[in-house]
Amino acid sequence: MGPGDQSLYAQTVTISAPASASERPAPNAQPDELPRTLRLGALELSPPVVLAPMAGVTDLPFRTMCRRFGAGLYVNQMITARGLVEGHERTLKLAEFGADEWPRSIQLYGTDATYVEGAVAQLVGERGVDHIDLNFGCPAKKVTRHGGGAALPYKRRVFAAIVAAAVANAGGVPVTVKFRLGIDDDHMTFLEAGRIAADLGCAAVALHARTAEQHYAGDARWSEIATLKAALPDTPVLGNGDIWEAADAEAMVRQTGCDGVVVGRGCLGRPWLFRDLSRAFAGERPLPPPNLGEVLDALREHARLVVEWSGENGLRGFRKHAVWYVTGYPVGPQVRRTLHEIHTLDDLDAAIADIDRSAPMPAGAMRIPRSHTSGPHDVALPAGWLDDPDELLHLDPQSGAMVSGG
C-alpha cells in the first residue's frame, strides 16, 4: 500500500441529525446487539466511539489519520481556556481544524469559570466548534498541585461553576465532561461529578475508570462505569480505560451498559483500531491486522501530514508516533533509535527502507502499552485541599499546563 492507496482506510463516517427516541437504542441496555449510535445534543454519531483528547498527540495530522480508518468523534487535543482568551500563539495553533473536518470537537482545560466562559464563547462564536469537552481527568502533578485536572471535582462548587459557565455559553453546542474515579480510593468523586454535570445540562459524561493516584497503573475498574451508568440512566455515559482492541470495547459495553467508548492509548501507532471498532459496532467481523508494510505506509503518510501542517520541524514531535507504529514488530532496536532522531522525511525514508515489509503483526502487539505506563503515584494537592469539598475558592488560572489528559 502506498500513501495514495486507501485499501487500509475505511471511509465510513456516519454523523447525522438526531434520531427520534423510537429509533435510538435504549439507555443502559446490555443486549446481544451493541448500540449503533451515540447522541450528543444535535449530533448523532455512528459508531459510538470517541478519540480521547491527548495533549501533544491528537493534533490535526493524527486526527486526519484516524478519521480515514472509520467514523466516530475525533477530539482535538486539550487547550487552556486562559491561553485561548488571551490569544496565545501556541494555543491558537493547537486549536486549528482541517477545512473538511466535521464535527469540530475540542477539549478545554480551565480552573476559572470566567476564562472558561470566554473560551467557550469564542470556540462557538468564532471557531464554529460542534462539541466541547471539559478536562477534569488529568492526574499530572503540575496540574493537580494547583487544584486542576482530576483534583478539581473534589471541590464540587468550583466544579459546578466551571461546568455551568461552559454550558451557559455554548449556545446549544453539546458540552461533555471527562473525569476519573476520584483522587484516590478514599476520595472518590465520579458519582457526584456525574450527577452535577447531568443536572447542569451536559450532553454526556466520560469516565476514565482509574483514580488520579493510579495514574495509568493497574486495570481500569469497568465495574464503576456500570455504577455511574446506573446512577445516570438518562445521560449518555462513555467508558474509558484499557481498550486496546475492538473486543475490549465490545466487552466494556456489554459488561457496563455504557453508551459508548473513549479510546486513548490503544490507538497510538494503531489508527486502524477505529476501523476495527467501526466494524464491531456494526456487527461485522474484524479484518486481519495489517502487515508491517501497510503499517510503514501509514506511518509515512502520517509524517507527510505533519510536515504539511507544521513543516519538518513538526517531525520532532512526530518521533514518538513513529516508534509507536513499529512497537511490537520485529524491527530491531537500531531502527527504533533512528526513528527517535529523524529530522526530515528523507531521514524517515532511510530509517524504514530496509525493514521487512512482509512481517505480520505479532500476537499481542496491539496490547503492548504505548505512551503513559506510570503509577501509582501520590497525588500532589494544594495545602488543605481535602478539608472542605464545599469550599468555593478562586484557583489561579495561570496554573494551567499543557499535558496529556486523563
Please give the structural blueprint.
Blueprint: E1 14-16, E2 38-40, E3 43-46, E4 49-51, H1 60-69, E5 73-80, H2 81-85, H3 89-94, E6 105-109, H4 113-125, E7 131-136, H5 141-144, H6 156-168, E8 175-180, E9 182-184, E10 187-188, H7 190-199, E11 204-208, H8 222-231, E12 237-240, H9 246-256, E13 260-263, H10 273-281, H11 292-310, H12 315-326, H13 333-339, H14 345-352
Parallel strand pairs: 4-5, 4-13, 5-6, 6-7, 7-8, 8-11, 11-12, 12-13
Antiparallel strand pairs: 1-3, 2-3, 9-10
Integer average pLDDT: 90
User: Helix/strand/pairing class, anyone?
Assistant: alpha/beta
Largest sheet: 8 strands, parallel, barrel
Query: Which overall shape is indicated by the principal axes computed on the Cα atoms?
Result: globular
Number of structural units classed as domains:
2
- In CATH, what is the homologous superfamily of the largest domain? Aldolase class I
> What is the fold-level CATH name, i.e. the topology of the largest domain?
TIM Barrel
Taking all Cα atoms into account, the compactness measure Rg is: 20 Å
* Residues in helices, as a percent range: 25-40%
Residue windows where pLDDT falls under 50 for at least 5 positions: 1-7, 9-31, 400-405
Number-wise, the strands total 13
Give the helices and strands as they follow along the chain. Answer: EEEEHEHHEHEHHEEEHEHEHEHHHHH
Cα(first) to Cα(last) distance is 35 Å
The CATH class name of the largest domain reads Alpha Beta
Compact summary:
With 406 residues, the chain is of the alpha/beta class.
